UniProtKB/TrEMBL annotation:
Function noted in UniProt: Catalyzes the phosphorylation of pantothenate (Pan), the first step in CoA biosynthesis.
Binding site for ATP: D6, I7, G8, N9, T10, R11, I12, K13, T119
Source taxonomy: Bacteria, Pseudomonadati, Pseudomonadota, Betaproteobacteria, Neisseriales
Enzyme Commission (EC) number: 2.7.1.33
Tagged with keyword Transferase: yes
Active site: D96 (proton acceptor)
Name of this chain's protein: Type III pantothenate kinase
TM stretches of this protein: none
Enzyme class: transferase
């Protein structure tokens, strides 16, 4: 039985899997990691595979939480699970992006845009041959709202919701962020489609995926919302025969 853990900048997502079968999934804030040992205690876990982009303190906290098991950390390299990493320095790629690319390939064939809408928005291009061509990093929905609040005198952080023609400050900010995120995704979809000479599919995951998806100017048949692509990728890694 495998425990898979994705430590993002806002939340920790985790799953317990037996082969391809998911037995349990959950998410918690960084401050709630202390609850993990009690939550995983009922399961006979033999392997822990994780990725972390939230700094060494959280890595240490997870290592302590799963003792006596040791965490196998996913470190991006040049090749893994059929994916080629084109980053100039492969290890500089976010481990969550690397896991999402591996998960995406297992979910779907063809040329893909792999989108993670979390604290940051990442939009990564993956070819049918398994080459990660590169991708973009933008501030995510909440970071965009917070940056406006920090850099202006009058905006603050009023609540907002998705609407076509915003008529209050909160909605104006929320939808400004939403169209920026949608635009970043659409732009990369068009760029990859132009490069490959045909339409591409877009796999989208992360905490804000459901908010963004309805506003994407991409045919619905080319967009697929996947619950947690990072954990899917970690499951592939955990099931690999060669040790990490
Ligand atoms: N229960 C929740 N707690 C925190 N953020 C949430 C929750 N549900 C949705 N979100 C949204 O998801 C975003 C975080 O997404 P997530 O994929 O967990 O990010 P990360 O991997 O960077 O930690 C937040 O910015 C927020 O807008
Ligand atoms: C881009 C990210 C901040 C996204 O983090 P997240 O929103 O998932 O918390 C993370 O993948 C990261 O720190 N990447 C390292 C730099 C890079 O991928 O180029
Ligand atoms: K993430």
């Amino acid at each position: 039985m495998n425990l898979l853990v994705d430590i993002g900048n806002t939340r920790i997502k985790w799953a317990i899997r037996q082969g391809t079968h998911t037995l349990h999934t959950a998410a918690c804030l960084h401050t709630e990691l202390a609850m993990l040992p009690a939550q995983i205690a009922p399961w006979p876990i033999s392997k822990v595979v994780a990725c972390n982009v939230a700094g060494p303190e959280l890595a240490q906290a997870l290592a302590a939480a799963v003792q006596p098991l040791t965490v196998q950390w996913l470190i991006p390299g040049r090749e893994r699970c059929g994916i080629h990493n084109s980053y100039t320095e492969p290890a500089r790629l976010g481990a969550d992006r690397w896991a999402a690319l591996i998960g995406a390939r297992q979910q779907r064939e063809g040329d893909l845009l792999v989108v993670m809408a979390g604290t940051a928005l990442t939009v990564d291009a993956l070819t049918t041959e398994g080459v990660f061509l590169g991708g973009t990093i933008s501030p995510g929905l909440q970071l965009m709202r917070k940056s406006l609040a920090q850099g202006t005198a009058e905006l603050g952080l009023p609540p907002g919701q998705a609407t076509e023609f915003p008529c209050n400050t909160g909605d104006a900010i929320f939808n400004g962020a939403l169209v920026a995120l949608a635009g970043a995704i659409e732009h990369m979809a068009a760029r990859l489609a132009r490069f490959r000479g045909h339409e591409v599919s877009c796999l989208i995951s992360g905490g804000d995926a459901a908010v963004i998806t309805p506003w994407l100017g991409i045919a619905a048949s080319h967009v697929c919302h996947i619950d947690n692509l990072v954990l899917e990728g970690l499951a592939v890694v955990a099931n690999e025969e060669i040790s990490l």
